Amino acid sequence: MKHPFIILVTCIWLSTQVPVAIAQQAQLVEAAFSPSLLPDKQSDSPPLLGITGRVRITDNDRFLSEVLNLAEQARGLGDRSESGVLLLDFETDSLIAEMKELDGQFATGRANFAVLFDAPLLPEGWHLCACGQGRFAGTFVYDPEDEQRLQLATMTAGLMPADLESTIETAGVAVIDLALMKRFNVNWLKGFNFGASFKYQYIIVHERKLRLVEHEDDDLFDPSRDSNEHHFGNIDIGLTKKWASWDITAVLRNLIPGEFDGPLTDSGWQSRPHLELHAQRPLSIGSLSISGDITERTGFSHVPKERRTGIKLVSPIHPKINSILGYKNYDNSIM
């Protein structure tokens, strides 16, 4: 049975207002989800500040440490063979068995953040949001011919580490948005709140393929290299309807589709319009919200398509800090 190791950083939200009503804090937390949930801005109120973030790493069967140990073993045996020493059968058999066992295993990571505020320099009712999200995945791909190469090294020296063809492959997509958000009053949408976000997007598409023996500590996920950078503009729209004590919101993200190439594959990551639903209600201790994807989020290379659903409770624990307790499910995800 696999026991994934998960690191989860709890989300927090901050506010520059002291004190701030619980309902207004909770509304600010949810506003990053949709511009239609933006709070009413009072002309005499100070700027609001909301910050949230989450990091999750899944390492099935200690893949990250195992693949690093495997790379060190392979380099050691290759260096000895290259120097003229015959390898022993039990050494090569052990390495081959470990490579076969590691074949197809993976580690994945995801992170997101959002910073939301209204600035005095912006027109009345406009908010600025800086937010980002990224998903990364890495896997080991065993080359069956490496077994013959290693067995040959028990009979004749000269095997070089670079002769082994098994690889480690990583891929990922990170999108950072800088958005101007506003809730609009639309006469023909009476009973609904309508909002829009106008976004500048900085997109990083990462792909890397390296031989096992080339892998060194802390270099598996490095978006600063083996990545293509793109710049794009996009729009989100949101619609919120009050139903009993619930606010029901639909958000259509990334209205403008685009395709962004990676450094290795011909077909890159595709950004497509994406629909989400969100329901929120106030509680005496904060607010409860339920969210879910109606359409799948696009994948890329080893990063699969997925559909997310989640539930969370937002509760103030300090005039400037909100705790967020929640659960999120990733359907069709390798996580």
Quick take:
The chain is an alpha+beta fold and 335 residues long. The protein contains four helices and 15 strands.
What does this molecule look like?
The chain has one domain. The protein is built from 4 helices and 15 strands. The strands form 2 sheets. Strands 1-3-4-5-6-7-8-9-12-13-14-15-2 form a 13-stranded antiparallel sheet, with helices on both faces. A two-stranded antiparallel ribbon has the order 10-11. It is elongated.
Largest sheet: 13 strands, antiparallel
* Broad shape: elongated
Average pLDDT level: 82
**Tally of individual domains:** 1
Low-confidence stretches: 1-23
Spatial order of the strands in the main sheet?
Answer: 1-3-4-5-6-7-8-9-12-13-14-15-2
- Relative strand content: over 45%
> Percent helix among the residues?
10-25%
Class of secondary structure makeup: alpha+beta
- Number of helix segments? 4
What is the number of E strands? Answer: 15
Give me the strand/helix succession: EEHEHHEEHEEEEEEEEEE
N-end to C-end Cα span? 15 Å
Oligomer: single chain
**Radius of gyration of CA atoms, rounded to a whole number:** 25 Å
